Amino acid sequence: MIKRSLFTKILLGLLTATIVPFLISSYMSYQIIGRSVQDQLVQLNQKSMAITMSSVHKYIHDIMLLTLSYYGDPELMRLLTKKEMQTPAEAVYINQKMQRLYGSYTEIRSVTYKSALTNRQFNVKSGLNERQLIPDFVHRRLPAEGQRYNEEYAVIEVNGEKRLQINKLFVDISSRETLGLTSVTVRNTELKELVEPLSTSEQGDVYILLQNDLQLLYSTASAAGDSDWIQELRGKIAAADGDARGLIHDPKGKGIYIYYTDVSYGLPITLVKFIPSSVIEQAGRQALNRSLALQVAVTGFVAVMAGVISYVILLRIKRILGQIKKIQMGNFNIQGGSQATDELGLLEDRLQDMAAELDALWNQQYRYKLEVADARLKMLQAQINPHFLYNTLQSIGTLAIKKNAHEVSDKLAELGAMFRYNMDIDHEEVLLQDELEHLNHYISLQVGRFKHKLDYSQSCPDEALFLRVPKMVLQPLVENSIVHGIEKGNGTGTIRVEIELNDRLIIRVIDNGRGFAPDMIGDIRRAYTDSSAKLESRVGIGLVNVLKRLQLYYGPGFAWDIESKPYALTTVTLSIPYQPEKEREPHESTDRG
C-alpha cells in the first residue's frame, strides 16, 4: 500500500519529518535549556548592572567633585594656601565653609583636611570616635605610615562597618605642588539604595567590590570572606585590564556569580550578583514543560494539515494527469481547469496553453504544404520579371545614347544598378563599399530630381570599406531623411553620412529636415522592444524595420540612438559591433550573379 499510494508516502513523510525533529529537539532542550536560561539571566542582570554601575559611579564622582570646590572660593583658597598657621578665626571660617560643602550628603560621616604647608588638621563633620589622624607632611610628602592616603579610593572599617574613603590631594594649579589632603569617609546607605533593585530579583546576594584587588565595600550577604570565587574573579579582572563582564561558577555548585567591572572616572568598581542553582533549574523546568506542551500541540496540528495538504495536492495532480492523457489521445480541448495561481495552477495553465498551440500547429501544417507550393511559383515569377525589367532598362539606355541623351542614359544605368542590387536575393550581407555605391546611385537620382535644393556629403575611412554589413541599411535611412524630413519639411536641406571605425562601426545619418517629435521617438523605442506595439507613421515603420534587422543580425551588441532638433539637426546613430570574421580582403568583390 505504501509503495503504490503517493498519499500515504506524503502523509507518513510529513509526520516523520515533524515528529522526529520534535523528539530530538525535546532531548536537546532538556540538555541545553538550563544553559539558555542561564545565559538569559546573565544578559538581563548584566544590563541591570550596567544601569546600576552608572548610578554608583556618578554618585561617588559627585562626592569626589566636592573636594575640588575649594578652587571656586577665593577666600577659602587664600586661607588654605597660607604658609603661616591659620588664626582661630580663620580656622572657624574654614570649618564653616567645608561643612556647607559637605552638609547636603548626610551619609558623609567625616571630612578631614590636612595642610601640607602648616601640618594643621581640620576635622569637619565627624564624631570623636570617627576622626582620622593623617600623619604630618614632610617636605609636602606623606611618610610611610600615611601611604594608605595616597590611594584615591579605598575601603576602611569603622566600628565594624565598611565605608568608602575618598582621598583627594589639594594641589597648586600653576606649580602642581601639594598644598594639602582631603579625606572623606562615606557610609554605604546611599550605595545600598542604588543596588537594591539588583538584590530584589532572583533572591541572590549582591556585592560591591572596589579597585583591582577587590576590596569588599558592600554586600547583602551576611559574610563574604575571601572565598575561591573572589580569587578567580581577581585573576579575570587582572587579565582584562579594564572593563570586564562574565560569570563564575560556584566551586560547590550552589550557583553562579555574575560580575560587571567598569573603570569609569579612574575608579574600578565591580558589581557581583549571585544567582542560586535552584532559580536556574526552576526556570529551565518551566521553559521545558512549555516547550513539550507546544510540541505536542504542533504535532497534532501538523498531522491534520499533512492529511489535508496531501489530499488537495494529489487531487490536482490527478486532474493534470487526466489532461495529459487526453492530449496523448489527440484531444487538445482541455479547457476549464483550476483557476489557482500557485505552482500547480501555473503548470496546469501552461499545459492548456501548450495544448492550444499544438492544436493550432496541427491545423496549420496542411496550410503550410499549400503555401510552399505557392512560394515556389512566386520565386520563379520573381526571377523572370526582374530580368525582363532590367533588360528593358538597358535597351532604353542604349536608345538614349543613340539619341545623344547621355544624362538620361546615366540615370537609367544608375536606376538599373539599384534595381539589380535590390533584386539580388542570393546575398544577405555585402561590403560596406557596395552599400555606399548603392547609396550614391540613389542620391544621384534624387539630386537630379531636387537639383540645388538637396546637398549631400559623406565620409568613410578606407579601412571600413571592406567590412561586411547587412544589405539595404544606408539607403532606407537616407530615403527616410529625404521623404519624411526634407520633402515634408521646407523642401530643401542637407544630408550627411558619417562613418567611423574604432572598436565599433559607427554610422550617422544627419539632416536638417523636419525631424522627430519626442513622442515619435518614444513610439519607435517601444516598437523596437515590443513587437506587438503599432506605429501609425510610415517614417517610424521603415526605421524600426531597419533597426530590427540589425538587431537580429548582430544580437544584443547592436545599439542605436536618435537625437532631433526639428529644422536644425537630426541624427540617427547606429553602433555596430566590429566583427573581424565579417571582413573581406580588398581584392575580393561582391558576387552579384
Separate helix tally? 12
Contiguous low-pLDDT stretches (5 residues minimum) are 379-384, 581-593
**Helix fraction bin:** 40-55%
Through-space gap between termini = 75 Å
* Shape field: elongated
Order of helices and strands: HHHEEEEEHEEHEEEHHHEHEEHEEHHEE
Structural write-up:
With 593 residues, the protein is an alpha+beta fold. It has helices at 6-66, 74-80, 88-102, 189-199, 228-240, 277-328, 343-402, 406-423, 432-450, 474-487, 518-529, 538-554; strands at 108-115, 121-124, 153-158, 161-171, 178-186, 206-210, 215-219, 244-249, 255-262, 269-276, 429-431, 454-459, 468-470, 493-501, 504-511, 559-565, 569-577. The strands form 4 sheets. A 5-stranded antiparallel β-sheet has the order 2-1-5-4-3, covered by helices on one side. A 5-stranded antiparallel β-sheet has the order 7-6-10-9-8, sandwiched between helices. A hairpin with a 5-residue loop joins β1 and β2 (121-124). The longest helix is centred in the N-terminal third of the chain and has 61 residues, at 6-66. It is elongated and about 150 Å long. Mean pLDDT is 79; it is low at 379-384 and 581-593.
Short synopsis of the structure:
With 593 residues, the protein is α+β, with helices and mostly antiparallel strands. The protein has helices spanning 6-66, 74-80, 88-102, 189-199, 228-240, 277-328, 343-402, 406-423, 432-450, 474-487, 518-529, 538-554, and strands spanning 108-115, 121-124, 153-158, 161-171, 178-186, 206-210, 215-219, 244-249, 255-262, 269-276, 429-431, 454-459, 468-470, 493-501, 504-511, 559-565, 569-577.
